[in-house]
Amino acid sequence: GAVVSQHPSWVICKSGTSVKIECRSLDFQATTMFWYRQFPKQSLMLMATSNEGSKATYEQGVEKDKFLINHASLTLSTLTVTSAHPEDSSFYICSAQSKLNQPQHFGDGTRLSIL
Amino acid sequence: QKEVEQNSGPLSVPEGAIASLNCTYSDRGSQSFFWYRQYSGKSPELIMFIYSNGDKEDGRFTAQLNKASQYVSLLIRDSQPSDSATYLCAVNVVAGNNRKLIWGLGTSLAVNP
């Protein structure tokens, strides 16, 4: 149980392109989803928290106009990296949570490379 | 600033031994605590979670929580080479209208055959 599917797993695209990443909870309803970014050999960095039907809450320093988050249903959240540049290249990981204080379950991550 | 601290390691144990991983946290109001395992290049995988003081066992893993000392640990019995990974301690904290996890930097574990 508690399976989270994240697509795509790997994206390579040109600078200036917008990239959409999907995160789905397959066997539970996720009231809250989280988006993280992780650079090589560094810890997870929370980018934003999204609740179904509400605007996402972004962490300090994360540009909301660059990283658009939509949590339209209890099983789907999307992260769109708009006008991506090489410095946006990173490992993006989503997680989903059914209730407060319950564990977060992670997708397999999306490796984004901007040329 | 709410913090979670872990020894970065590497912690090296022989195969079959007990690995002991430790974590301290600063927010006394925290109510839920998690251990995740992360292999290189992969996303975190939930190992254990604990809410109450004391021990919680699941197979070869035991999580221990002491809220008075603000301390949580993970014991891995009969360690296997496949347990070699980075172990992340995470603590749930209140953040505005939400809750979020504060993460330790992780302890690297190497189990030697």
Indicate the topology.
The complex is a heterodimer of chains A (115) and B (113).
Chain A: E1 4-7, E2 10-13, E3 19-25, E4 32-38, E5 45-51, E6 57-58, E7 67-73, E8 76-81, E9 90-97, E10 105-106, E11 110-114
Chain B: E1 4-5, E2 11-14, E3 19-25, E4 33-38, E5 45-50, E6 54-58, E7 61-66, E8 71-76, E9 85-95, E10 98-103, E11 107-112
Parallel strand pairs in B: 2-11
Antiparallel strand pairs in B: 1-3, 3-8, 4-5, 4-9, 6-7, 7-8, 9-10, 9-11
Q: Could you explain the architecture of this structure?
A:
Chain A has 115 residues and is an all-beta fold. Helix content of chain A is 0%, strand content 51%. Chain A is globular, with a radius of gyration of 13 Å. The termini of chain A are far apart. The relative contact order of chain A is 0.33. With 113 residues, chain B is mostly beta strands. Chain B contains no helices and eleven strands. In chain B, strand 9 and strand 10 form a beta hairpin. The radius of gyration of chain B is 14 Å and the shape is globular. Classes of the chains: A mainly beta (115), B mainly beta (113). Chain A binds chain B through residues 2, 32, 34, 43-44, 46, 49, 51, 57, 91, 93, 100-109, and chain B through 31-32, 34, 36, 41-46, 49, 51, 88, 92, 95-101, 103-106.
Shape of chain B: globular
Which chains share the greatest interface?
Answer: A-B, 21 and 25 residues
Percent in strands of chain B: over 45%
Low-confidence sequence ranges of chain B: none
Quote the distance from N terminus to C terminus of chain A: 37 Å
The helix-strand sequence of chain A is EEEEEEEEEEE
- Structural class by secondary-structure content of chain B: mainly beta
How far the N terminus sits from the C terminus of chain B, by CA atoms, comes to 40 Å
SSE sequence of chain B, one letter per element: EEEEEEEEEEE
Share in helix of chain A: under 10%
Summarize the entry for a quick read.
By secondary structure, chain A is mainly β.
Keywords:
heterodimer, A: 115 residues, mainly beta, seven-stranded mixed sheet, four-stranded antiparallel sheet, 11 strands, globular, B: 113 residues, six-stranded mixed sheet, five-stranded antiparallel sheet, 0% helix
